Amino acid sequence: MTRIASDTMREQLKVYFIMGSVNCAKPPAEVLAEAIAGGITLFQFREKGSGALVGEQKYELAKQLQHICREHGIPFIVNDDVELALALDADGVHIGQEDEDARIVRAKIGDKILGVSAHNLEEARAAMDAGADYIGVGPIYPTKSKEDAKKAQGPEIIRLLRRHGIAIPLVAIGGVTADNAGEVIAAGADGVSVISAIASASSPETAARQLVRAVQSSKKGA
Ligand SMILES: Cc1ncc(COP(=O)(O)OP(=O)(O)O)c(N)n1
Ligand SMILES: Cc1nc(C(=O)O)sc1CCOP(=O)(O)O
Ligand SMILES: [Mg+2]
Known about the structure:
The chain is of the alpha/beta class. It has one domain (6-220): Aldolase class I (TIM Barrel, Alpha-Beta Barrel), CATH 3.20.20.70. 43% of the residues lie in helices and 16% in strands. It has helices at 6-12, 28-38, 55-72, 82-88, 102-109, 121-130, 156-163, 181-186, 196-199, 204-220, and strands spanning 15-19, 42-45, 76-79, 92-95, 113-118, 134-137, 170-173, 191-194. Strands 1-2-3-4-5-6-7-8 form an eight-stranded parallel barrel, surrounded by seven helices. Magnesium ion binds next to loops. Its cofactor is Mg(2+).
């Protein structure tokens, strides 16, 4: 295996859906299958928050969702839990500033995809140096999906990172919807990462399709 190429990573980040059982009003497998039908390009299993599954139940749900992703060629990323990612032979791991050190995680996962959260230039540079394949920047807009989210920074944070030479694949997260996705792409993000815009939608398929359209039309206009 070799590390993912930057251009491939950028493509996969276009519409990056994140979800766990607590985010879904209907069975997670149904939500994921619909989101895939709508055109999502990457999936992150994030089993976190009040009521989240643990132990065997968490493992079984992860396995079920990974199977759905595999059937459709969608890479499967695990949030926070490096040991789970290794046990499942997932495609990658996403970690934040409060999680295990990025260099240690890179050493553990070899060439699997490594995503790291960054909230400012210093963190973005450190993530690049530690071997991140992409950075997740947020929250861009206010979000209710992360209990300990920081203050929303707006799309300007993406412009700032790009202006200061952060050239690696970058995905915007936090309060992103089909209505504001275009402005984060215009600011320099390669893609958008969402929980509620898809998981809370009455039709996850339609919601995903609207996000795909918004991202694509903003890229065409660039
Ligand atoms: C794509 C992406 N970007 C950012 C995050 C947030 O990660 P983190 O700061 O570790 O917070 P938790 O998601 O673990 O609560 C993410 N998960 N994905
Ligand atoms: C998981 C996560 N990380 C964030 C960050 O700022 O790092 S914001 C966030 C939640 C995103 O959910 P929604 O699309 O529903 O706003
Ligand atoms: Mg984390």
